[in-house]
Amino acid sequence: MHPICSKRILRGLALCGATVLAPAWALEAPAPSAEALRTLAIAHEHGEGVERNPEQARQLYCQSARLGDAQAQYNLGWMYANGRGGARDDVTAAYFFQAAAEQGLPQAQSMLTVVGGPTKEVPECLRPAPVNEAVEPSPAAGVNYESIAPRHILKLVHKLAPRYQVDTQLALAIMAAESNFNTQALSPKNAQGLMQLIPETSERFNVKNPFDPAQNIRGGLTYLRWLLAYFQGDVALVAAAYNAGEGKVERYKGVPPYQETRKYVKRILHAVGDAFHPFDQKVTRPSPAMAAKPKP
């Protein structure tokens, strides 16, 4: 059973769908969260506390889906698969089911097979959105890792990062997010060491012992240098690729619609304080999928 929103809450949240009619105080309110948008979409889909409006439900679900809400992605996929609120569209349904399945919703994986399998076609409702919306950087670096990280780790990063043309703050931000400076960190997906290198990445960058701090940092810095060149210095895309893989960034033409990845990107941008990082274009060619993306 979907939760029912009170009319008071619905009136406050309605600014996301009708800002022209919203009072001045509402325009100054914080942007609704993915969960709030999903709740409002459910209300419009089923007529719970507001007039039933499947078209508005689609729009609200899409806003929530863009922020990485897996349940909104599934619900929107279901609406497209069943022609609710508009024409049936299995390709668009597949996109949203795929995004939800990648975040762990088993029912989304089942529905993905029903509508024909994965797709690379980005739905129209997502295309106008800025790639890095909701993950804007802070005006200055927001974390002092010099007071947090172990001294021997700091010494290694300060020594090695310049050699790989990676800013120490970015390297430390990734390391803090990945392992919290634990040299023996091991994830359920077998990511290893300080910078959580998976075995494929260790092999790719010639890391023999990922639990050796120096080797691990070198491997992570080599990967960051490559990502910076591949995504032409876009820190948000580099962080997203480090978290979710460069293939996912290319498929979604930006930060993937996963809550985990979007929170990760926001954390890195806050710590680094800049959306652009210098890069060496000789390291690799830029991503073909992102070639049309405007440069900073």
Would you kindly provide a written description of the structure presented here, covering whatever features stand out?
Helix 4 (54-66) packs antiparallel against helix 5 (70-81), helix 11 packs across helix 12 (235-244) and helix 12 crosses helix 14 (259-272). The protein has helices at residues 7-13, 24-27, 34-46, 54-66, 70-81, 90-102, 106-114, 151-160, 168-179, 199-204, 213-230, 235-244, 246-251, 259-272. It has 14 helices and no strands. The protein is 50% helix and 0% strand. It has 296 residues and is mainly alpha-helical. The protein is elongated, with a radius of gyration of 21 Å. The model is unreliable at 1-28 and 128-135 (pLDDT under 50).
Task: Spell out the blueprint of helices and strands.
Blueprint: H1 7-13, H2 24-27, H3 34-46, H4 54-66, H5 70-81, H6 90-102, H7 106-114, H8 151-160, H9 168-179, H10 199-204, H11 213-230, H12 235-244, H13 246-251, H14 259-272
Helix pairs in contact: 3-4, 4-5, 5-6, 6-7, 8-11, 9-14, 11-12, 12-14
Radius of gyration: 21 Å
For the termini, the CA-CA separation is: 46 Å
Total of helices: 14
Structural shape: elongated
What proportion of the residues is helical, as a percent range?
40-55%
Arithmetic mean of pLDDT:
84
Q: What is the string of helix and strand elements?
A: HHHHHHHHHHHHHH
Largest sheet: none
Question: How much of the sequence is in beta strands?
Answer: under 5%
The residue ranges in which pLDDT falls below 50 over 5 or more consecutive positions are 1-28, 128-135
The secondary structure category is mainly alpha
Secondary structure: number of strands:
0
